[in-house]
Specification:
The structure is a homodimer. The first copy, chain A, has about 260 residues and is α+β, with helices and mostly antiparallel strands. The first copy, chain A, is built from 6 helices and 13 strands.
């Protein structure tokens, strides 16, 4: 059952489609993410096309890379224990979050915002807790999500001959908005930012502050079809005209000097 | 030319489609946004369907509501002048941004982050500058974007008999990420947050921190097809299973007590 492709333009440029990719099989350490996706594509007769973008939730990437920690092996410090006790949290998760961080940004109302080794600012260093194999395990972020994205891109290219950009995502909170949305944490094969500064709007007004975080918008869009409650860890974005080129998630990280939060 | 509708499910739930809506005509004070959209739909033989969501960039809404200020009518204070001078900004815009704010949150490196009357935290109180009618004008945010969204929804319902949720958006920066993404600033006819707390993932692990800011994800997704450089101020989102019900953008605003930024 191939995905139907509509090439219809409607005056405004064509539509963008978000096609969920469901993986039945549980991902295990050592698995190839590209291999699992390709198996799915074969099974469903999905043919990736030039212009498609693949967005993948990090959790399966972390699992494939063995970034799983048995929480029973973690001995929390007295500090982690005290703080966890106070807010009824798992001290082992707090301990692990601190170990995975390079700085504590905020610690307030039981929320621990850290800067991860990668430079992401998020709750608990992005650690998820999951019942992998029945026991309580923590799933850490990939060590180098740009590298993880590049690996999937490379393996897909080798298998099907197409250069498909890959974005790896995680759900983060936002300091002043309720709820989580998905953000890009790793990128390969496309520019994460689109810089329209100096271009003119339909009134010939020169745009000033128009750098658009395309990779984060793609991550959020994919978040609409990728779920935590179903086995849909990836999606294909069709019809979005991205800018090719070397890109890194680092392009999206505000340097501390201009970061208005710190 | 009706939009083709594919109802194909692929194991994971169906795909989501983002269909750009291009409006050729410039929106003027007093225009009905719903009326303009309906004219476009008639022209292109677009038939909205049950389940569709309409996402609209605020700028046309602001214009329709007459939220336009001729910058020549603004006399900046000495403080606004000094600050604008220092960072080579337009003092009138700074002045207007301060007038539209209820608090200054940050003022750093030439960036002015305010809390707007609505409670949004954004640069320059969300003011855009545009060459409306050849002169320099500022476009303010709608006075009550929830009400603006409700009006479009009501008028659409009256005209076509369908209850289509409406989201109004603006592009905001994020404190620790580069680039802008679109956020919901007004909502009618759907819940902006999806609360999965207490539900279980495929491993039977009970989800803890899983409140998803659907309206912001929809806004970001729409941002991929709505442009500043083309006349595409709206988009139809098809295939996303939203939760009906009364919703307000206020649901997305973190109360100052739990806001980690302030």
């Amino acid at each position: 059952m191939p995905y139907p492709r509509s090439e219809r333009k409607l005056g405004a440029g064509s539509e963008v489609r978000l096609i969920p990719v469901r993986l039945e099989k549980e991902i295990a350490p050592g698995d190839s993410i590209a291999g699992q996706l390709l198996a799915h594509f074969r099974q469903w007769r999905v043919r990736l096309q030039v212009g498609d973008i693949l967005v993948i939730k990090h959790k399966i990437v972390s699992k494939a890379e063995g970034r799983i920690v048995d929480l029973n092996t973690i001995e929390p410090s007295a500090e982690s224990l005290a703080w966890a006790e106070r807010y009824k949290l798992d001290a082992r998760v707090i301990e692990l979050a601190l170990r995975e961080s390079r700085a504590v940004i905020r610690r307030k109302n039981g929320v621990l915002i850290t800067e991860t080794q990668h430079g992401f600012l998020c709750a608990n260093s992005g650690i998820d807790v999951s019942n992998v194999d029945g026991g309580s395990h923590a799933v850490l972020l990939p060590e180098d999500p740009d590298r993880s994205a590049a690996k999937v891109r490379r393996e897909l290219k080798k298998a099907i001959g197409l250069d498909i950009p890959v974005i790896i995502t995680d759900s983060f909170g936002r300091p002043w908005r309720e709820g989580l949305t998905d953000f890009a944490i790793g990128i390969a094969g496309m520019k994460p930012l689109q810089d329209d500064r100096g271009r003119r709007d339909p009134h010939r007004y020169k745009l000033k502050a128009s750098v658009e975080a395309i990779a984060d918008e793609l991550a959020s869009a994919a978040g609409l079809v990728c779920g935590k409650l179903n086995r849909t860890p990836a999606c294909i974005v069709c019809g979005y005209r991205y800018q090719r080129g070397a890109g890194s998630v680092r392009d999206l990280l505000r340097p501390p000097a201009t970061d208005l939060f710190r």
